[in-house]
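Narrative of activities, Objective 1.

The group set out to show that a structural description can be obtained from nothing but a protein's sequence at a throughput compatible with the screening campaign. Below is one input-output pair from the validation batch, recorded exactly as produced.
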Amino acid sequence: MLGPVILAASRSDRMRRFVSVAPGTKQVVDRFIAGETVEHVVPIVLDATDKGLEVTLDVVGEDITTREQAGAARDAYLDLIAHLKDLGLGTRAEMSVKLSMFGQALEGGHELALANVRPVVEAAAAIGTTVTLDAEDHTTLDSMFAIHEELRKDFPQTGCVIQAYLFRTEADARRLAAAGSRVRIVKGAYKEPASVAFQDKGEIDKAYVRITKILMEGDGYPMIGSHDPRLIAIAQELARRAGRKLDEYEFQMLYGIRSDEHVRLAAEGHRMRVYTAYGTDWYGYFMRRLAEKPANLLFFGRSIITKN
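Output recorded for this entry:
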């Protein structure tokens, strides 16, 4: 099982240094990371929206260690929102944020993360868009859900993410599948112990279907985060059975993965949103993408060999 090994490496400073200087790294990172700055990512956003797609933008870099870094993360998102406003893209582009990037893991982190993310959510609402709170490892989720609930008091469109591999998620989905909610369901991409999460892929897929059914039959707005053709087809069938129209749910996929499928779903009338990450601190995000799909690791290995 390569996935757990890669996820462990995502927390290794030694592996970070090795991967960062490996000859083939840039070629592979460029497949998943849209650029280093907001200026780099704007043309990609414009190209996506021209194709009928929508985007959610993630400024990578959750491994922060100081309050100053947390403040800088807030400011990076505010700069992004200013660019989206100038381009008139507020209705086509939203933001995804990891609360660890806003200081959640620091002393007094819950209050700090809330204080830092609130102005981002306010600014997003001012240009007609919103923010989705990404899920991280299971120890952070109670704080994330509490912040989500607090933000929704003033900004009810604020979304959140749930992870199918966690035992708790079916209960979370039932609670969240209420009118006005926006919930993204993903399989999960963190190394979690067997005491809190399914370890078998088949069990994770079954949980994903059960949770998708809960969301589709609820009163909220489901966001189906998957590249798996079988799960996408099942989600479409569950939406049909629940009587949902095409604009009452959406699909989400990562930038750089199954790009033709992005366009195909949009052409069929589905709302299709591309999760687009950018920034300089890409290591943790990059390693999770490798862990999710071993073929990505093989691509990385071939790139290193080719460059040598």
